[in-house]
Amino acid sequence: MNVDSGHPGQGGAEPPRILRSDREAGELTQLDLDLIEQLQLDGRVPYAALARQVGVTEKTVRRRVSHLLAENYIQISAVTDPAMLGFGALAIVLLAVDGTRSPADLAEDLALLPEVDYVTVTTGPFALQAEVICVDGKELHDVVSDKIRRLPGVREVEILPYLRLHYQEARFSGVRADGGPTGVRPRALDDTDRVIIARLAANGRASFRELSTELDVSETMVRQRYARLVDSGAVRVMCIVNPLRLGFRSTCWVGLRLDHGAKAVELAESLTQLPAVSYVAITAGRFDVLAEVVSLDGEALLKVLDEQIRSLDGVRELDTWLYLDLHYKALQPRQGPVSHHASDIQTV
Hints:
Structural class: alpha+beta
CATH superfamily of the domain at 191-232: Winged helix-like DNA-binding domain superfamily/Winged helix DNA-binding domain
Largest sheet: 8 strands, antiparallel, barrel
Number of helices: 10
CATH architecture of the domain at 191-232: Orthogonal Bundle
Strand order of the largest sheet: 3-5-4-11-8-10-9-6
Radius of gyration: 20 Å
Low-confidence stretches: 1-16, 336-348
Order of helices and strands: EHHHEEHEEHEHHHEEHEEHEE
Number of strands: 12
Strand content: 25-35%
Shape: globular
Helix content: 25-40%
C-alpha cells in the first residue's frame, strides 16, 4: 500500500504537507504523467536518462520534477516491508460513523494521526478504513482505543490485524516492466540493509556517497547492496502518487473469505499475479485476505472482479468498497517513541 518532518502540535513543528491531488490545483500535463510513469519504474533514474526517455532536455526534466515535488503532487521514496522501518504491528481499522459528521471531515482527522498512513472514504457499511502502522501490538491497541474510537463522529470500530503484509505494488499503470509482478515482499535483511532502506524511505534520491559515509563502508558496497535489495524485491525506490489523482477512479478494497480448506497464502500469491492488484494483506477478522484493486472505471473494475478475482481457487465470497476519497502518506521510518510521518498526505 504503499510512509517526516513534524506533526501538528508537537514542539512547534510545521503543519502537515498535503500532497496535491485536487482538480483545482491544476491538471497534470502529459509530460508530468510521462515523468511520473518513468519515476514509478525507477525513482533513482538519473535526470539525464530520464530526459532521454521522455524526449525533452535535462533542464526541463529537473524543473518539472522539482515542481511536482514542491507542489506536493508526488514523493520519491522507498516502498518496503514496514518491519524494515521499525513497524511490527499493522491493521486496517474499519469505521462506521454516527451521522454527526461527514466521513470526509472524519477522514481528515484520521489522516493527521501519526500512526495512520492511509485513509479511504468508501461505499458500504463501514464508511471509512484507516491503515494503522505501529511499533507493536500494545501501541496498536492504544491508538485504536485512545485515539480513533474517541474521534467525534465514530460510532463503531472493527480491527483487521495483518498477519502478513504480503505484497505492495505502488505502480498504477497496469503494465509491468517485465511482464510479471514487480512489487515488494517481506525479506530477511541485516542491519546495514535496514539502514540503507530507512534512509531511502526518507529520501529516495539520497546519494550512495552520503550513505557510504554514514555507514562507513565503500560506495561500491552500498551500490551492490542496493542492487541486491531491488533484485530480491525487498525494496523499490519510486514515485509515490495518489492513484485517484492519476484518474484511477474505480479503485477499491476487496475483502475475501476463503473456501473451507483453502490457504490464505496461496490466494494472496495468486492475487499478486493480477496487474490491477496493488496491495495484498493476509488478515485476522472478518476477512482472510484484503486486496486493493486499482482501475480506471467501473467496466474495468467489473472485469477484474468477475473474470479474475472471483475465479481464483479458494475464493468463497468477496466484498468490495469503492474509494470515494483517499488520504495517503508515504511510510517513513519510526524516529523514537513518536512517529513523525503526518507530513506527507495525499488527498483527493
